[in-house]
Write a structure and sequence with these properties.
By secondary structure, the protein is an alpha/beta fold. It contains six helices and nine strands; from the N terminus they run E-H-E-E-E-H-E-E-E-H-E-H-H-E-H. Helix 1 packs across helix 6. Bound molecules: guanosine-5'-monophosphate. Guanosine-5'-monophosphate binds next to strand 5, strand 6 and helix 3.
């Protein structure tokens, strides 16, 4: 079984950027490609950024037990397909799941050995600034995401590992140390 690393944190905290920089440093880290019913944003590609599915298709996969976890977030479905967690032969795999809180809780139950990392913003206000600044979401979507973010931030104590994404380089250093530690722990 591959090493599974769950990375959670509110929308706009910079999870995607931290993970991208980690993967530049550690090319053996794979990113699980999630399925979602939300519409692609400009520039997003099916099968690369997400598996973009229709609602019926998503429900069918739930019924078939195809998801390792799934959750509804801001009116859309998101989930990790079990097939994403399969190990590629001959490689020591590290798979990162970039998922929201409910999904992280499900993985905590089903895969207690997985490392769970919460990425927190330096302040709630920085989340708003980043969501507005990235310009990909409508005002209504931003409000929905900020409402969820409040709940997510209150849940961060559930996570043994919390990284505050204040300075990006420091956040990537901290995540890299955790992942290396997890790999060493598996070998010892
Ligand atoms: P976005 O729409 O901004 O790409 O993602 C919205 C939220 O859904 C983010 O917090 C993201 O981490 C989360 N998310 C993405 N993929 C999955 C998934 O497969 N499962 C769960 N539970 N959450 C996901």
């Amino acid at each position: 079984m591959a090493h599974v690393i769950v990375i959670t944190g509110p929308s706009g905290v910079g999870k995607g950027t931290v993970i991208r920089l980690l993967r530049e440093r550690m090319p053996s880290v794979r990113l699980s490609i999630s399925a979602t019913t939300r519409a692609p944003r400009p520039g997003e590609q099916d099968g690369i950024d997400y598996h973009f599915l229709g609602a019926e298709q998503f429900d069918l996969l739930i019924a078939q037990g195809a998801f390792a976890e799934h959750a509804r977030y801001a009116g859309q479905q998101y989930g990790t397909l079990r097939s994403e967690l399969e190990e590629s032969p001959g490689e020591e795999d590290v798979i990162v799941l970039e998922i929201e809180l409910q999904g992280a809780r499900q993985i905590r139950e089903s895969m207690p050995a997985a490392l769970q990392v919460f990425i927190a913003p330096p302040s709630f206000e920085t989340l708003r600034e980043r969501l507005v600044g990235r310009g990909t979401d409508s005002a209504q979507t931003i409000d929905e995401r900020l409402a969820v973010a409040g709940d997510e931030l209150r849940a961060q104590d559930e996570f043994s590992e919390v990284i505050v994404n204040d300075r990006l380089g420091d956040a990537v250093d901290a995540l890299e140390r955790l992942v290396q530690g997890q790999l060493r722990g598996a070998i010892d």
